[in-house]
Amino acid sequence: MTTITLHPDFRLGPVDRRVFGSFVEHLGRCVYTGIYEPDHPTADEHGFRRDVADLTQELGATVLRYPGGNFVSNYVWEDAVGPVEQRKPFLDLAWRTVEPNLVGTDEFLQYCEREGIAPMMAVNLGTRGIEAAIALLEYCNGEAGTKWADLRIANGREEPYGVALWCLGNEMDGPWQIGHKDAHEYGRLAAATGRAMRQVDPSIELVACGSSSMMMDTFGEWERTVLSYCYDVVDHISMHAYYEELDGDRASFLGSATAMATFIDRVAASADAIGAERRSDKQITISFDEWNVWYLVSRFVGETNLPIQRDAPRIIEDVYSALDAVVVGDMLSTLINHADRVAVGCLAQLVNVIAPIMTEPGGPAWRQTTFHPFATAARLARGDALQVKVDTGTLTTARHGDVPAVTAAATVDPETGALALFVTNRTDVEQTVTLRTPGATARLDGGSAVLADHVGPREGREAAEAYGMVDALPVAQEGDALTLRLAPESWTAFTGSLR
User: Fold this and answer.
1) For labelling, which of 282, 355, 358, 402 has a CA lying 20 to 30 Å from the CA of 61?
2) Distance separating alpha carbons of residues 103 and 27, to the nearest angstrom
3) Nearest partner of 356 among 16, 67, 15, 61, judged by Cα
4) Per-domain residue ranges for the chain?
5) What's the alpha-carbon Rg for the chain, to the nearest Å?
């Protein structure tokens, strides 16, 4: 028997809407034949696919990180602004693809503006540095009368874009990164670049590169060293994590969100240790700006094994199962349960590349299985995240040890009392859960669930289109007690009220 206890007075804090972000990188078909395809039947006057934009709205994406990713560390942004016919292709060393530069800063930022999505821009601290970063910031946010702002105006955009959120490079701890640096090199460069960018626009938020995963040899020491240089300059530190089912180890895969939670807690502790040393009242928050299920080990050949390609090659187009969707839902619950520290989250990526949305050139766009838990959580998780106490058994895993058999996250709207409760059953048997709300009254109107044994294995578009959320198992109420039944290996979203 599992018991979940919550109360509207015990809150972690507001759920930042930016935690439901995604990621657009010039990688594979994410941009070309993904969001952008001028010859597509649904393309708008700017060349962007309306069918993809509509699905992005349905997904609920609030932020889009751009232009990378590994791509940014070899990127010359100036070559992708101005008249398209004058732009020159270049060889992207990260993904060994000839980039045509048809979509650049202006096209992307205007797309975000039309769609009502906040952009999150990254600057190149791999092959470039301070000068290029402040030029890009001035181009995006500067007022008329300076070199780069005037270039933006000459290119047809009078008003500044007002981009608020900026990444100081990408995964600079990774040996695979073009221009990879050690923690001291990167920390000094990030601090100097951040200070210069704040001279251009003091209102921006800055994200320093944290560890590319908890398994990096430099994890922990990287955060400590980098923040020792730039703690006073940045607002957030990044985290990246991907999970997959390895060697048929289903239990460990279902326990992935426990590893994700541990990662968040350790990064937060590392940041707080630097704050304590400095006797600072400032708290660094987390930008979890790459996360997803990615079959990196078992399916991806590795970027160094890719041939040089043109014309938006099909790279890393994982097709997801219903089990993958359950794990994605559980990871979303983990982000909600860390609302007091996670300010930004980006599901990587938006279209085609390990993505919730898939397309065919000239053809349809459709939802992958992982689309459904993300869209559901983005729609329902409003207001404040609650402190949720879960008393449950354990699931033994080879990779993560004993993990909770049932996990839960909850949000409540402080004005309306609307409750959203997200519950994961990681076990292969049905679980019965008692919901306790001592001193408060809860009502559940119903819910929908992702079931790992539901249709939607790795069978391509037809299976994905047939897949969706199903009705949750019935909720029983006797007096003040609510009893929930959770299908085996499932993620369920319940709605109701809590007062």
Assistant:
1) 282
2) 12
3) 61
4) 16-382, 389-498
5) 22
| Cα–Cα distance measured from residue 292 to residue 224, given in angstroms and rounded to the nearest whole number | 25
Residue 255 near residue 427, CB atoms below 8 Å: no
CA 281 to chain centre: 28
pLDDT in tens, 166-206: 999 999 999 999 999 999 999 999 999 999 999 999 999 99
Within a 10 A sphere around the Cβ of 160, how many other Cβ atoms? 17
Q: Are 238 and 264 in contact (CB under 8 A)?
A: no
User: What six digits make up the tokens of 252?
Assistant: 């460990």
CA distances from 360 to 56, 58, 364, 468 (A): 16, 19, 6, 20
pLDDT tens per residue, range 126-160: 999 999 999 999 999 999 999 999 999 999 999 99
Pairwise CA distance, residues 170 & 287, whole Å: 12
Architecture per CATH, 389-498: Sandwich (2.60)
| Tokens 């657009």 sit on residue | 24
**b/e map 372-406, b = 16+ CB within 10 Å:** bbbbbbbebbbbbbbebebebeebebeebeebbbb
- Whether 251 has a pLDDT exceeding 70, the answer reads yes
Q: Which 8-state DSSP code applies to residue 35?
A: T
**Cα separation of 384 and 387, whole Å?**
10
Mutual angle of helices 130-141 and 183-200, in 10-degree steps: 30
How high does pLDDT run on average in the chain? 95
| Top CATH class, 16-382 | alpha beta
Could you give the strand order of the β-sheet that contains 11-14, starting from the edge strand earlier in sequence? Answer: 11-14, 384-386, 406-412, 418-425, 490-498, 442-451, 470-471
Residues linked to residue 97 through DSSP beta bridges, in sequence order: 92, 309
Residues known to be catalytic: 171, 290
